[in-house]
Design brief:
The structure is a homodimer of 220-residue chains. By secondary structure, the first copy, chain A, is α+β, with helices and mostly antiparallel strands. Chain A is 41% helix and 15% strand. Chain A starts with a helix and ends with a helix.
């Protein structure tokens, strides 16, 4: 958390953006860093958490961070909280609260109150248009073979951080597609190694090891 | 909307990601495009709306799109909806619904139900840590001079899209810092031209014209 707070201070001091910093941690190592860069990069989505998640995913070449923890200097706004859900990060540590952010002029709390409202009560005007036409695309997706899905318990991250275990995992993946792992269960129970794969309609998940205690508490 | 739906089809057909597309429109012109690229770029935040907003902001060199409309092939997930709030886009048109997305396996509806929950009821574990330390940074931000704020009604976008009016606006900005506009009110009422500026503690907003009818309906 001290690193996240330092990133927030640096963001403010260097004029990159608001006072928000974040790190993503996996296997006790920082594998992603971010700070608010909205105003300096003209990107309203460049919040500290989004930046750190993108950084971690780029580094690990994965789109899900199931074995990671996120440390942020302020409670995530709804955009960043939702990004944490999409990235499948199970644990978040935060310092300042959304009310603290509101007190210095940020809209986090306002947006938290807007998101659950019925559309017609939001400050944004939202209108439905061409639903039937768009449903055709959704039906085509449902029928598509060979598509890459978001796995609900995918984690490629931890394996990439641990070369020794990773080499075993990769060998296992080659030899165990759809079968039981050939590596020692006692060693592999330290982490899950799921892999995003191109699947047909039958969902294929390669399971190498048991879920870790931290991840098994997730409701995904 | 047809362009957004086409972007969704292209995303799916080319294997870039899920069946989601989006365009951002300003002054009847498409100024940002995006499609889902989560799996192909290993970026869980690369939803169609986020990508389109970032594209529009890069093109217009602004972090707020107050005079724009967003057309998306599916109701925005909470991450994208919140990004729309941060980008100050006042109007959204959508085709498929969150329930349609859930029906083909996406978590939009699940995350909508998670975000408003008290922390302890969410599937993500959230813990407070070092708040007092982080509050020091927020206090420093409150006291900081020369910081770039998020303006609540800033729009630099429209001016950049309309060279003729833009040239007038820029001239006006030079001549009217803190004073009344010198350009014809009848011409300038077509759009607002606010500008993000470095401000001191006294908040300085350069107002050139009246809010447009579309934007004045916003509660920001």
């Amino acid at each position: 958390m001290k690193e996240a707070i330092k990133a927030a201070e640096d963001s403010m001091r260097t004029g990159q953006g608001g006072p928000f910093g974040c790190v993503v941690v996996c296997c006790s190592k920082v594998i992603g860093r971010g700070n608010n860069r909205v105003t300096s990069t003209n990107d309203p989505t460049a919040h500290a958490e989004i930046t750190a998640i993108r950084n971690a995913c780029t580094r690990l070449q994965t789109f899900q961070l199931t074995d990671c923890e996120l440390y942020t200097s302020c409670e995530p706004c709804p955009m960043c909280l939702s990004a944490i859900y999409w990235a499948r990060i199970p644990t978040v540590f935060y310092a300042n609260t959304r009310q603290d952010a509101a007190a210095i002029g940020f809209d986090d709390d306002f947006i938290y109150r807007q998101v659950p409202l019925p559309m017609e009560e939001r400050s944004i005007t939202m209108k439905s248009l061409l639903r039937n036409e768009a449903l055709t695309t959704f039906r085509a997706w449902a029928d598509k073979t060979g598509k890459m899905r978001y796995w609900s318990s995918n984690s490629y991250a931890a394996s990439l951080l641990t070369p020794a275990i990773n080499s075993i995992s990769r060998a296992s993946l080659k030899s165990t597609r759809g079968t039981s792992p050939t590596t020692s269960p006692s060693r592999m129970t330290r982490m899950r190694v799921h892999r995003p794969i191109n699947s047909g309609n039958s969902e294929e998940i390669i399971r190498i090891a048991q879920p870790s205690p931290a991840s098994s508490s997730s409701k995904w």
